[in-house]
Amino acid sequence: MTAGRFTLSPATSAVLADLGVSTGAVLRAAGLPEDLFLNRQVALTPDQFYRCWAALEEISGDPALGATLAQRVRAETFQPAIFAALCSADLRHAAERLAAHKRLLGPLGLAVHADGGRLSVTIQWPADPLPPPSFVAYELVSWVALARLGTRRPVRPERIAMPNPPGGAAGQAYEDYLGVPVGLAAAPVVTFTALDGRRPFLTANAEMWRVFEPELRRRLADLDRVESTADRVRAALLELLPAGQCSASAVAQRLALSRRTLQRRLAEEQTSFQAVLARTRHALARHYLERPEITITEIALLLGYDEPSSFYRAFHQWSGTTPHQARATAT
């Protein structure tokens, strides 16, 4: 995971399921790999993330997607940073915590102001690429959803505004949810009354915050880690091999990469597609050989070989012995 990216958790799939939208359809439309959510956490560049959002908006056919998502907010579908915010004493403290951990949310900044007792949160975006207006609307509306979830009260913002606010039916849908229209402003901002900013969170839990805080620190440290291409190739092969697909082209397509890019990234990790393929097949072969109910011929097919003789030659090259000898030793 690297800085400058939006991070998504596997719970994103649950959110899409609630919308009745196929995760695979969204990822394909966005040109992203279908194995994306097999990872524990996902990091997308702004361009990738915005393509994913645009694909979700198109497939759902919902012009007020942000409002719809806000109405489906549940604590268990939050990322840890936002779940930890629910442990705060009130909305003001939750905003301060989220601002401190804003890098976990993506390449955006949060400016929190308590002006005259009112609580205002302004969202600052990178200049390029600009986010879709509907996503900006969602980010603003999510603060209202957080306040309502924490207080269990129908909190209504004093003001909510953004560049290019939604109009027409979408604008009305947002107003129906928020209780106020989305106005025009140079920067996205949502403002709450002093009372709502200080209203106690029924979800406040200091002990749970002490549990989450080390995890948040760890995730901040993880931002500089990069996902191994070799690991992604291996995960793809685990699914493709039983179907007889073991080519670099098939794996590259699964990972939404060109074959040349796949080979280049593996070379940068001091390995190659053939080396990863061989290691994956060898590990799987050892696993299958420990299961006597699977014949040698079946193992060859599960590993993507057309003929058992090809598997015999490869296994001997890997281990210096035959599959039958290895099975006898294992049992």
From TrEMBL:
InterPro entries linked to this entry: AraC-type_N, Homeodomain-like_sf, HTH_AraC
DNA-binding recorded as keyword: yes
PROSITE patterns per the UniProt record, alphabetical: HTH_ARAC_FAMILY_2
Residue span(s) of domain HTH araC/xylS-type: 231-329
Gene Ontology CC annotations of this record: cytosol
KW DNA-binding (keyword) present: yes
Pfam family for this entry, one: HTH_18
Gene3D superfamilies named among the record's database cross-references: Homeodomain-like (1.10.10.60)
Keywords associated with the record: DNA-binding, Transcription, Transcription regulation
GO MF terms, alphabetically ordered: DNA-binding transcription factor activity; transcription cis-regulatory region binding
PANTHER family named among the record's database cross-references: HTH-TYPE TRANSCRIPTIONAL REGULATOR GADX, HTH-TYPE TRANSCRIPTIONAL REGULATOR VQSM
Name recorded for this polypeptide: HTH araC/xylS-type domain-containing protein
Organism: Kutzneria albida DSM 43870
